[in-house]
Please model this.
Amino acid sequence: MRIVLRGGRVVDPAQGIDQKMDLLIEGEKIKALEPELPSLEAQEIDCAGLIIAPGFIDMHVHLREPGEEWKETIETGTLAAVAGGFTAVACMPNTKPPNDNAEVTTFILERARETAHARVYPVACITKGQRGQELTEFAELKRAGAVALSDDGRPVPEAGVMRLALEYAKNFDFLLISHAEELSLSEGGHVNEGLASARLGLKGIPPQGEAIAIFRDIMLSELTGAPIHIAHVSTKLGVDIIRQAKEKGLPVSAETAPHYFSLTEEATFDYETNAKVNPPLRSETDRRAIEEALKEGVIDVIATDHAPHSELEKRCEFERAACGLIGLETALPLGLRLVERGIIDLKRLIALLSTNPAQILKVPGGSLKPGAVADITVFDPQSRWVVLPENLHSKSKNSPFLGQEMKGQVVFTLVSGKVAFSRRKIR
Amino acid sequence: METNFSHRHLLDLHSLSSEEILYILNTAENLKEILSRPIPKVPTLRGKLITHLFFEASTRTRLSFEKAAKVLSADIFNFTARMSSVEKGETLLDTVLNLEAMGTDLFVIRHPMAGAPHFIARYTKARVINAGDGFHAHPTQALLDLLTVKQKKGTFAGLKVAIIGDIRHSRVAHSNIIGFRKLGAEVYVSGPATMLPPEPEALGAKVCYRLEEALEGADVVMALRVQKERHGRKLFPSLREYAQAFGLNTKRLELARKDCLLMHPGPINWGVELSPELQDDPRNVILEQVTNGVAVRMALLVILLGGGA
Model:
């Protein structure tokens, strides 16, 4: 099976390419990338006016299977992924039961083999039951196919336990992903401490709590020499600490989510439960600092923290509502807003969505070099659409962007050389 | 004075203009006369069904709403979470929709969670009045406090209002700060710093770490009920120390203006936030606040349910 993507603008940060090119796929691999390919015996896909990028890799999603299949399944979550241009997702371990042992990892990978539209990389727990006490069996989890470790949704509360985890991870070349939150400051909180907590009469979550936790884990990374990846950075204070660590040459990487550079705490002002998320939406100063960090390279990755919840968890009192919002299908247009506003260029956006997460997770993809896997995202940067429940492929519709117009939409997504998603008929 | 009151609900004072607040106060002043008639009852809201949804204990607010409804001849459902299907796990929304299906025209809701009235307002066709939600707002309490001050002082411009106590966890303080500021008064707050708002600039009140600074020259002094524990942490070491350091007594009130008003939303911990010697003090207008509470709630019921006063 051969496919030619013809006439598109190829943007591949890994090779420093941003120009009109033709791309040939043979089987599961990219075979050739040339300014102009001759006419070939192959399925032709006209990509004029479209952008061709290495498939996006979301290193932070919640697929809810096993245990909360009414919110999302591996099948529906990965369908939302390919609809949003993501050819691979790393799924967090706070399932029910949590992914703290090889059986659950194996189950997820088996379900992915049977039902998934995109590649699925399980992230397993750092501690048993995410209780923050005993380490999980890192060797077993690695053997079963976990790509990284995190207690996401909860931090590892004790520095001593986190130190052990970072040390032990070195034996298995495991990346630890830190959910940075100082629980004794955030407990009972529902929104950002500041304008939102004052206005809504809810206990706030101070930005300093995130900063303290980021600083702690960076210090532990320095102590142990093990790399650390900071998840969903939401604060200026956090960004400043990560910047300093990077200047010191520490092995730190970081991600943020589109809602932290697109929204502020104002989105919660009407007790809008779809804007309730942890960490909470922050101030305008924080939002700007996140933009700046994406531009400067202090933050390496845009990951969505796609967190589906049904109306059962969202159509209720704000304090009772679950934290989290879906993000797979709005990440690209929200990222493109940064490009349109001149904060970053397109190449940088693709690096944040594809090249960098591939390198940090050490997984295939992230480049369109001949020989690489044919995981490819083709999108129309001009296409306008409105975020409506019926336009979303995720089983859950908990988006704070419902009703908003977006610019930029995926046209084709190819995974392993096969069209996994298409908004156009292919002849 | 005629102002169009354009809101379907009364959820907080944030969304009201100063004109709308004054319109409510004026309506209340007009209706208050009914309460002193030999037969304090008018047919204005005959046939209307008002449902009280109380998910939290209340004496003054609940009975004051009940009295207001009865004076106006409305019918009342008194729902309390205890002994209801809420104990079987029925959700707030289902409870509301069921009571709406029985013909409720207006819900009066008191709920421990901030934003619960806003949440039900989004889904019900009936009107909603917030009778206190979590630490967020208690707009009818603030309105009755404003009415009391208006009657005693005539104007709000330039008044210094001091609110003393647990500001951070007080919906009464939050609504009063907004209400007094909208009408042109200055608001100073003081109390243990663990109970002062961490985001004072967002609230619009001046935070004083020295009690004297708040009391000095105040026209209105409002004490709040204190509770030692919040979220499982003790926010001050002992009630004894609180009374000594932050409790109001005759001596401390000397700092305020001679004609100041002493207010408290109730229930009072005598001997803690207020010294018992203030019970019979002429500056104490706490029971007048309660009477004004009925008038303000009558005004809101009439404004929201129409019927023409």
Summary: The interface with chain A takes residues 14, 91-93, 111, 113-116, 118-119, 133-137, 171, 174, 197-199, 202-203, 231 of chain B (CB under 8 Å). Chain B has two domains: 18-138+291-305, 139-289.
